[in-house]
Sequence to fold (708 residues):
Amino acid sequence: MSLDTPNDKPTSKARAARKAPASKAGGASAKAGAASTAMSPAQYKAFTDTLLTVLSGNLQARVPAELVGEGGAEMAQLLNQVLDNLAESEHRKQVSAQEIDQALDALIGLVREGDLSRWNTSTEDPQLGPLLEGFGKVIETLRTFVREINEAALRLSSSANQVLAASTQHETSSTEQAAAIHETTATMEELKHASAQIAENAGSVARVAEETLGAARAGRGAIGEFIQAMQQIRSDGVAVADSIAKLSKRVERIGTVVEVIDEIADRSDLLALNAALEGSRAGEAGKGFSIVAAEMRRLAENVLDSTKEIKNLITEIREATAAAAGAAEASKSATESGEKLGAVAAQAVEGILAGVQETSDAARVINLATQQQRTATEQVVASMAEIEDVTRQTTQASKQATGAAAELTQLAGRLAELIKRFKAD
Amino acid sequence: MNDEHVHEREGVDILFFDIGASTFGTDASQVLRIDRSLPEDITLPELGLPHRGHRALVFDTPEGEGHLKVDAVHAVRSIPLSALRRMPPTAGAAPYAVGVCLEEDRAVLLIDLVETARTQGRH
Amino acid sequence: MAPDRAVAAQARPEQEFFCFRVGDLRLGVPSENVLEVLRAGLLTPLPRTPSFIMGVTGHRGEVLPVVDLLRFLSKGEARIGPRTRLFVGITGSYVAGVVADTVLGLRRIPVAEILPPPLGGDASAEHLLGVVQGHGTQDAINLLNFSKLLQTARQRAVAR
Fold:
């Protein structure tokens, strides 16, 4: 029992005041009991004082048994019993009120602060019990909700962040892609111009190659004539060399003949000399003989002089033929090298012709190829423009998506923030 | 040279040899053998200097063996007496230049080896 | 025999000379001292001969000493070429070949035209008979006393 616990709350006083009519009714029944029994004034006063004390709010007040004596003992006992009951009842009322207050406080906290954690109200009051139990169930459900929402909000926030990140990245790459495409388009434009330039250059090359072709053909003709001329000179030179060789041989033959003549003249000279000596020894008889011998000697000397002259001539002819042979040899080797050079030149010109032909063909092929390339490039440029357009749209969409994602993230944040206000645990 | 001896045989065996660029002849009977030359062997600068002088004609002298340094030794040929001439004294040649062997238009000097040794000795 | 011919020659108003050139010398030898003219063939050099003996050569089965007059007269040195001549000179029993660059021929020279050798000349003058002037000074010919010359040569060679 909590009867010793003073109840200082104003509310309980007010309620005690409200219970006053009920205690008046009790008083009435006590009056009826007194009427049936005669009482001393002192006894009466004891009853009255007790009742007045109770009425003034002190439910602990009891009729003291010593004051009422034997006549009033029964009455006092009854009244005290009534007062005990009343106090009991009042106490119960107070407990209930306290429990209700607690529940109300919890509900107020829930409503004001979203705090669901404070609910642990219980009662022994059988009437109040089911109500609080109902509340408890509702709050438990709410707690579960809050927990789940909190978790979902967290997940949502995380997902929204991921979406935002992805969206931002997409936007970035989309922008980059747009830049790359723009660049590619520019490059393709340049390529188109370059192709045009190449086509033009190839055209020029083809024209120059045609001109070169003409010149080289003319050169080929000239070289052919040159080679023919060289061959003619060489065959002439060979004939000259042959003639020189023949001449040389004949001159040598003359030389040997002259040697023989020389030898004969020399011997004649000696013979004539010795004959003259013989004649001299023969005295007058040999005189005529000596004259003949002297004449013979003179002839021999003339012959020797002539052969000397011939020898000089032969030497000159030898020198001249040697020089001519040298010249012919030089001419031969010159014409040979001329022919070789001509052949080399002809080969070179053939090479040039082939090369120029190839160049011309190649230039034409390049021209054609660059034209095709230009067409292709133009198509690529057009396609790139389309892609650029699409990319721009994509970028735009990405931006929107990013905005939405950002908003979503914000919302998720707010939701999380809101749900945080509900304290489930 | 022994005139009586060569008359009997109607010819003389002559050994031909070279010193430097020239060819000489000597009575083959004077030559004991042909040997490798030695540094101290006789040379006759009047006949020309030997090119290499790898050979020596070895002959007998009253003082012993004589060695004449020569370049090449040709065959020994029998030369008819009619082709041999004594050296004319008017030429005033060295005593070892005893004669000449006439072959066509060529005259080969004949050397008396024993005289060369004597000449060398006088030097 | 030779002195007889010489006497006979002196009796005649002219004398025949075998004239030739060797080096820068134009010389004449009495024709009776000349047997024959040859080509200078191969010479065989001899050891230790006097320098004017160029060597020996074979001729008609004889061995001839070959004399260089240029060296003998101290007028230079003879050279043997393809046209060089060799005349066979004789005096008494002494025969020798003499080198001549060119044979000028046999000349009959009037004795009156033979001038005595110049006085105060060099040592070669002792072998000269005299000098005969030609058409110009270049044509002057020194006439040799060939017998004396050969004898001197012989003495010089043998005396060694």
